[in-house]
Design brief:
single chain, 84 residues, mainly alpha, two-stranded antiparallel sheet, two-stranded antiparallel ribbon
């Protein structure tokens, strides 16, 4: 999260990262790519995954996030690229 003097500048509620998602990011070597994304994307991915009611939906959403991080140019199925 972007912070100013230790305070997050994100205006939405911050979704804490579940241990299982962190473990998957580490297992797939994607934690640094996840952390390189803007705070709103990190927060949106976690909220989107954890709000799913069915476990199968959570797994599907988690897989989508992992694939998008690997690919690097997608965010929620939309083209995305970091500013250079």
């Amino acid at each position: 999260m972007k912070k100013v003097s230790g305070i997050s500048t994100l205006k939405r509620s911050i979704n804490p990262m579940p241990r299982n998602i962190r473990s998957l990011l580490e297992k797939h070597g994607l934690l640094e790519l996840y952390k390189a994304r803007p705070p709103y994307q990190q927060n949106d991915y976690i909220g989107w995954i954890t709000r799913a009611k069915l476990e199968t939906t959570k797994q599907k959403r988690t897989q989508q996030m992992l694939e998008e991080l690997k690919q690097g140019n997608l965010y929620m199925r939309m083209k995305w690229g970091r500013s250079k």
